[in-house]
Amino acid sequence: MTKAFYFLAAVLLGNAVAAQQPFTLTGNVSKVKDPVSKVYLSYYADGESHRDSTEVKNGTFTFKGTLNEAILGNLMVRIKDSAGTGLRPYNMRRDGYGIFLQPGKLSISSVDSFSNATVKGSAAHTAYLKLKAMNKELDDKAAELNKKYGEYSRAKDEAGMKQIEKEFDALEAQMNANYKKYITENTQSPIALYALNRYAGYDINAADVEPIFLLLPEATRNSSGGKDMAEKIDKAKKTGIGVIAMDFTQNDTLGNPVTLSSFRGKYLLIDFWASWCGPCRRENPNVVAAYQKYHAKGFDILGVSLDQPNAKEKWMKAIHDDNLTWTQVSDLKYWKNEVAVQYGIQAIPQNFLLDPEGKIIGKNLRGEELQQKLAEIFK
Fold first, then answer.
1. C-alpha to C-alpha distance for 116 and 101, rounded to whole angstroms
2. pLDDT tens for each residue of 217-252
3. How far, in Å, are 113, 359, 365 from residue 376 at the CA level?
4. Secondary structure element (H or E) that encloses residue 224, with its range
5. Which residues contact 289 (CB under 8 A, 6 or more apart)?
6. pLDDT (tens digit per residue) in 275-290
7. Domains in the chain, please, with CATH?
8. 50-59 long-range Cβ contacts below 8 angstroms, 24+ apart
C-alpha cells in the first residue's frame, strides 16, 4: 500500500525561528450556526505532541504557547447537539481545521461552520493555503478513494481493495510531483520543510530526497525540523538497498534475547508490525503463505512488533490468531521501539528482505510483490 494511504501522523514542520518565541491564537466562532462548547488544539513540535483545550466564552477563545518554527496544528471543536444536552458526533471535515502556527499574534474567524474560516497573522498559513490549492483536486480524489476503500474493507472485497491501492499509487505520484515543484520553486517558503516531509513520505529514498533538502537555506536545515529531516535521511541511507542491515538484539515472547546477525546464512524478512495495526493484520496471511512455501528452502522471518506497553497479551493473541509461527521480538514501547527507531520506522507495515550475508535486497514487499521476489530467489 502507498505511503500516501498510510499517512498517519507525520512530523509536519516548517521553517526556522532562532529560539522559542510566544504565540497567541485568538478565535471567533460567534457566526458558527451551531453552539460551540469547547475548542481543542494539537500539534507536534520538538519531538513531542502538544494538546490543549479551552472553553468558548461569548463566541471567542484563546490559546497561548511558544514555538521556535512554523508548525502545522489542528483545531477541533465540539458542538452541542440539537437538544442541548450532549455533544454532536465529531466530523473531521466540518468540525476540524488545519492551521499553520508561528510565533506572534494569530487570529482565526469562522464564517458559518468551523471549517470555513479565515486566518490572519501567519505567513506560513497563507503559503499553506496556496499549496493546498495546488492539490485540492487530488485531495478530493483521495477522500473519495478512502471512502471506497473503507466500503471494500467492510465487505472484505480483496479485489476492490487492491484496485483502490493501485489508484492511490497513481494519485500519490501526482501529489509528489506537485510537492517537488513547490519546494524547488519556493525554497524560502516557511512551509518548505512541511512540503518536503510530505514528498519524502515514510519510506524515504535518500538519493532522491537529500538533493532537494540541500536546496533549502542553511537556517532552515539547521532548524529543529531541518535537523529532524537530516536524521531521517541519514537513517534512510543506512537502510537502503545494497546496505548491510544494522545489527540489533531484542527479546522474544519468552524474554530471550534474539540477535539479527544470528539469522545469517538465510534469506530473512524483517517484518515491522503490531497487533493494533489493521493493514498489518490484513497482510499477515500473505506473509504466512510465503513462510510456509519457502521456509524449508532457506527463508525465515523475524517479526518486530510495535505493540504498546502493558499489551503483551494482545501481542501474543495476534501471533496465535494469525498463525505467525516464526520468531517474534518486541520491547513493547510502541513507536519508541528501539529497533523501529534505529531503522527509522515511521509507519507500519514495513519490511526489509535480507540476503544470506545480511544485505538489504528488498524493502516494503507486500502482496504479490513479496511472492514474486521470493519466487525469483528460490527458482
1. 17
2. 999 999 989 999 999 999 999 999 999 999 999 999
3. 56, 17, 13
4. helix 224-238
5. 371
6. 999 999 999 999 999 9
7. 13-121 (2.60.40), 126-238 (no CATH), 249-377 (3.40.30.10)
8. 56/29, 58/30, 59/28, 59/29, 59/30, 59/31
HSE (CB half, 13 Å, CA atoms) of 9?
11
Helix (H, G, I), strand (E, B) or coil at 375: helix
Distance in angstroms (rounded) separating the CA atoms of residues 278 and 124: 35
Report pTM: 0.82
Grid coordinates standing for 109?
474567524
Task: Name residue 338's amino acid.
Answer: E
C-alpha distances out from residue 7 to 11, 77, 111, 314, 348, Å = 11, 23, 30, 24, 10
8/27 Cα distance (integer angstroms): 27
Task: Give all strands of the β-sheet with 360-363 in edge-to-edge order.
Answer: 327-329, 299-305, 267-273, 350-354, 360-363
Q: Are 56 and 37 in contact (CB under 8 A)?
A: yes
Looking at residue 35, its amino acid is: P
Nearest to 296 by CA among 197, 374, 216: 374
SS3 assignment, position 153: helix
